[in-house]
Each structure stands twice: as C-alpha cells, then as structure tokens.
Amino acid sequence: MNSEKKSAMTWFLRYVAPPIAITALSIGLLSLAASKLKPKTEDKETIAVIPAVEVIVAQPQATQVEVPSQGVVQARTQTTLIADVSGRVESVSPVLSAGGSFRAGDTLATIEDIDYQVALANARSRLAEADLAHQQEQALAEQAIEDWKAAARKEDPSDLVLRKPQLARTKANLEAAQAAVALAERDLRRTKVIAPYDGRVRQKFVDVGQMLAARASQIATVYATEAAEVRLPISLDDTRYLDLPDDSAADNLPDVIIEANIAGKIWQWPAKVARSEGALDTRTRLLYLVASLENPFQNSTDPEKPSLKVGMFVTARLQGHQLEDVFVLPRKALRPGDQLFVADEESRLSIRNATVYQKNEDTVIVTGGLEPGERIVLTPLEYAVSGMQLQPIDPGNAGGSPAFSDETDKSGRAARVPREAGP
Fold first, then answer.
1. What's the Cα-to-Cα distance from 308 to each of 67, 259, 345, rounded to whole Å?
2. In this predicted structure, what is the pLDDT of residue 416?
3. Are 277 and 383 within one domain?
4. CA distance 318 to 308
5. Is pLDDT of 414 > 60?
6. Smallest Cα–Cα separation from 291: which of 33, 67, 140?
7. How many domains does the chain divide into?
8. How many CB atoms neighbour CB 79 within 10 A?
9. Per-chain mean pLDDT for the chain
10. Which residue, 322, 356, 379, sits at the end of a domain?
11. 142 inside domain
12. How far is CA 161 from CA 139, 156, 164, 171, in A?
C-alpha cells in the first residue's frame, strides 16, 4: 500500500508538477514585463469650455420709428385721349410715340378739317340770315307800336298786334344760329388733338391715314409728369406707429422716403402720404396708404440722379413717431419670448424680459428691461442658463462692431480656457 502511494507521488512530481511550475513562472514573468513596459500616467490639465460671445453696449438714443412698405410707381393723372370728331388722321406729332414728352397745349395730331370748315361757313351764313330777320322784326315791332298810337284807340293792343311773338321767334332763331356757329367752331378746333397738360405718352393707337370715329376711337394714353403716386400696403398693427388722421386733408400726414435700386445704386426721393384708401383689402387684409411724389419723372438738380419710371417697383420707409431714450438693437439680439441675454459685471449670463416697441427685419426698438451701459449678447447660445460664465468679445466696444482676439474662437461659439489640474 505504501509502495503504491510512493509510486503515485513520484509520477505527480515527474509529470504534473513541472508544467504547472513552468506556467506559473511564465505568468509571473509576463506580468512583470507588462508592468515595466506600461507608460507612466501624467496629470492632464482640465479644460473649462466658456462660450465666447459677441456683445454690444446698450446706449439710449432718440430715434424715428419707420414702417417699411413697398409698391409700384403710378402716374397720379393718366388720360386716354379719344377723338371728339370723325375723320381721317392728317398728321401726327413726332412726340406722339411711347415715351415722348410734351407740354400743355402742344398739338399731338390733326384730323382733316375740310368738312368742319364747310360746316362752320354754313353756320355763319345761317347766323347772318337769322340776325337780319331779327333786326327786320324789331323794326316791324317798333312800327306797330307807332301805328297803334297814331290810331288813338282806347283799348290796349294785343301781343300779336305789337308783333311780340314774331320778335321772339326771330330772336330764338338768332340764338340757335349763334349756338350752331359755336358748335361748328368747337368741332373745327377739335380736329387738332391738344395736350391737356405737361406729360408723356404711354401708348399710341393711331397713325397717319387712319379713320377715326367721334367719341369712339382711341388716340393715345398719356400721363402727367407733375406728380406720381405709390400705393403702400401696411398692416393694421403698423398703424400704431404712424399719425394717420381720419381727415386726408390734414397737414400732419406722415412723410415717406421712397427708394429704388437703379443700376446697382440706391436712390431716394422724398414723398408724403396724400391719403388713406380707408378700407382693408378683402384678400390681404392690409390697409393701403397713397404716397405722393412731386416731379418724380423729371431730372432733378443732380445730373446723375435718374428719374422714376411708371411701373417701377420701389421700397418705402414711412416716418412714424419720434422716440426719446430708447435702445435700438440688432434684430438678432432679441430672443424668443422677447428676452435679451445680458453679460453682467462678472461676465455671467443674465436673462431679461424686454419691453419691445417695434420689431423690424434688421433692428428692434426696446423701451424697457435694460439699463444704459449694459452689455447685450448677440451670439446664439445653444444652451442658455442664467448665471453661466461667458467670455465677452471686446466688451468695451460701444459701437456694436466687436473685434476678435487671437486667443478667442473666431467662430463665435466657444473659447477653450486652460486651467491647472487639481491634485
């Protein structure tokens, strides 16, 4: 029995123990080597990410409220000239073409007048006959009175005896003949198409040799150059910024600045609201104001300034209320819910509720919720928490055009500020 145990122990020591010992030694050696080769860990500096924000300094100022609008230039006075008499067009003025300019009283076209000259001559002949007949009847009436007196009759003479009805007839014939002459003279004058005002031709419809029908044939469409109008739509909410009396004849109607982009340059013309159309457009629910411009189609004292054209699209700035001590800020400074982000003295975020008077596409007018000298944050913040640390960019720049330093992130999103690592 003892020999069997001894034999088993010998077998274990010879065949099992050596591999186990070799494996354990190998693991120990590999662990030691790994620990020797492992790099030493170094303390990394902690990075604090602080948003770099663009700011402007709030300064109260006086400003003129403006309401933007747009419209199309239209002539205040536009006329379609129609032939007053029938006939063939005898001549056409060179200015009677699209874009041609004319003065009041200029002859734009003439119609053959031979028929109207004949008609006038006949009317004058009939007038002479009627005048003669009337004078003869007056002489006969006077003779009738003398004859009645010579007869020494006691009763009063009748009107027929005194030839009053005959005299009235000849007088009426004379007046009719005079009216016929006046009518013939008018028709003869109307063979010449006369310009009613200083203006331009918009469209021409006739030419030499064309037959015209009285009160039916169109000759041309013309417009006056003394004034133009622009219909400017505004919302009912915008009316609170303007002084719009119900009486369009009032003197305090708003001024307007008309602007047009011509050849890549913005030109301006002064105008004034002439009237309100007084009713909302049923389709757009907008109110239309009509601005009037004086002499917009004529060259001004500036030889380089172009004239406006009928049909030109223009923008307008209606001049509203004059405000004092308000803050005019870039539109991007206003956050949803009429809130402003302010960087306080410690450059921490303060969220303010602003009292907004007007919002425009580019600016916003704030009347409350700010103090002079406070720094307004313009940069969008993805996560805004009141009290968070900020890094204002050029906070001393009150002009509203911040400068970037080399140490800040010029994307305007965030700056990485290193700090020493803690123990």
1. 22, 10, 53
2. 37
3. no
4. 19
5. no
6. 67
7. 4
8. 16
9. 84
10. 322
11. yes
12. 14, 10, 8, 18
Residues 217 and 239 in one domain: no
Same domain? For 219 and 279 the reply is no
Residue type at position 165: P
Residues 216 and 276 grouped into a single domain: no
232 and 318 housed in the same domain: yes
Both tokens of 224, joined, read 């006056």
Q: Does residue 166 lie within any of the structural domains?
A: yes
- Domain end among 264, 294, 322: 322
216 and 238: one domain? no
Task: Give which of 235, 227, 233 is closest to 269, Cα–Cα.
Answer: 227
Helix (H, G, I), strand (E, B) or coil at 150: helix
Q: Based on the fold, state whether residues 99 and 186 are members of the same structural domain.
A: yes
pLDDT tens-place string over residues 204-226: 999 999 999 999 999 999 999 99
Note whether residue 278 is domain-resident.
yes
User: Is the same domain home to 89 and 218?
Assistant: yes
CATH of the domain at 344: 2.40.420.20
Tell me the per-residue pLDDT of 336-390, one tens digit each, with 9 for 90 and over. 999 999 999 999 999 999 999 999 889 999 999 999 999 999 999 888 889 999 9
Structure tokens at 394: 């050029």
CATH code of the domain covering residue 271: 2.40.30.170
Torsion of CA 376, 378, 382, 388, to 10 degrees: -30
Cβ atoms 363, 389 nearer than 8 A: no
Is 330 contained in some domain?
no
In sequence order, the 6+-apart residues with CB closer than 8 A to the CB of 258 are 230, 268, 269, 270, 271, 291, 293, 308, 314, 315, 316
**Range in 182-191, 238-247, 256-265, 342-351 the model is least confident about:** 238-247
Beta strands in 192-286 (DSSP E): 192-194, 199-204, 211-212, 218-224, 227-234, 255-262, 265-280
Check: CB of residue 82 under 8 Å from CB of residue 216.
yes
Tokens encoding 410:
């010029």
Partners of 267 in the β-ladder: 260
Say if residues 109 and 91 touch (Cβ distance below 8 Å).
yes
| Model pLDDT for residues 139-196, shown as the tens digit of each residue | 888 887 777 777 777 777 777 877 788 889 999 999 999 999 999 999 999 999 999 9
Amino acid at 413: R
* Residue 399, pLDDT score: 39
Other Cβ atoms within 10 Å of 241 Cβ, number: 20
Range of the domain at 26: 2-35
Q: What are phi and psi of 333, to 5 degrees?
A: -75, -20
- Residue 231: name the closest of 69, 362, 404 by CA: 69
